[in-house]
Design a protein that fits this description.
about 260 residues; 5-stranded mixed sheet; two-stranded antiparallel sheet
């Protein structure tokens, strides 16, 4: 079955351009196409007409890399839950539908061009502490470390975050707590992540606060996350942050006492 659609797509030449919506009418869209494949068809038609194609992010197109991501009819990645834009198929729409396509809307994700936004703020959070320095050997060595299954499962759930930014785009405050909490949890829960657990938490949370808004528990982030990551991780992050600050304060107090003596 093929679809005839009306697309309203956000076009913006660059960060300093005001931007506007342009309307396109793609016809005979195969319902088995993904949303990005549908945009490919639109772009092929625009190129054939000598017009500028729509810029949008994509890479693996398998819901793994986190590169894709647009707001479809007001919802990050579209209305189908637990689905990335690249995995959203056109059979979820009906012929004659009007589809509005926009970039992530967040001050921390400035538009580069059309549907492409700058997500380097996420990179800054990872660079602040999203790694381990402990030598863990090869894969076989890692598998020899005994970890309770419940802990391993929870760490894996957190590690499923693909860093697409839907959580930020959905949040009324433009907060990145879910992303940061997931990136912290998948390291902080495992033995390999313990040596830098407290310094990592402070560094990543403080960096997050430089770029993003504050969390007020709307839970829109969890609803928009294509990997279904729970806001429970935010509570774990907040707990670790408080513990880390307390440990740092206690350490400073000991140093001050020794110097005074």
């Amino acid at each position: 079955m093929s679809l005839n659609l009306l697309l309203k797509v956000w076009r913006q030449r660059g960060p300093k351009d005001d931007g506007h919506f342009e309307t396109y009418s793609p016809n005979d869209i195969n319902e088995d196409m993904s949303f990005l494949e549908m945009l490919d068809v639109v772009n092929e038609e625009l190129i054939a007409q000598g017009k500028e194609p729509i810029a949008f992010d994509h890479d693996c197109r398998e819901g793994i890399c986190g590169s894709c991501g647009v707001v479809i009819n007001g919802v990050p990645h579209g209305l189908k839950t637990l689905t990335t834009t690249c995995q959203l198929h056109m059979r979820n729409f009906k012929t004659g539908d009007t589809i509005t396509v926009e970039p992530w809307r967040s001050t921390s994700f400035p538009v580069i061009k059309d549907l492409v936004v700058d997500r380097s703020a996420f990179d800054a959070i990872i660079q602040a502490g999203g790694y381990i320095s402990a030598p863990t050997g090869a894969a076989g060595d890692g598998n020899e470390t005994l970890i309770p299954k419940s802990v391993a499962d929870l760490a894996f759930e957190a590690a499923a975050c693909i860093g697409c930014g839907a959580c930020v785009a959905a949040c009324p405050n433009g907060a990145a707590q879910l992303f940061t909490a997931a990136k912290l949890a998948h390291l902080n829960l495992l033995p390999q992540g313990q040596p830098e657990r407290w310094s990592r938490t402070v560094a990543m949370v403080d960096t997050m606060e430089e770029y993003f808004g504050s969390c007020t528990n709307y839970a829109e982030c969890e609803a928009a996350c294509p990997k279904g990551i729970s806001i429970d991780f935010i509570a774990k992050m907040n707990r670790d942050y408080l513990k880390a600050k307390f440990k740092d304060r206690r350490s400073t107090t000991k140093i001050d006492t020794s110097e005074a003596g």
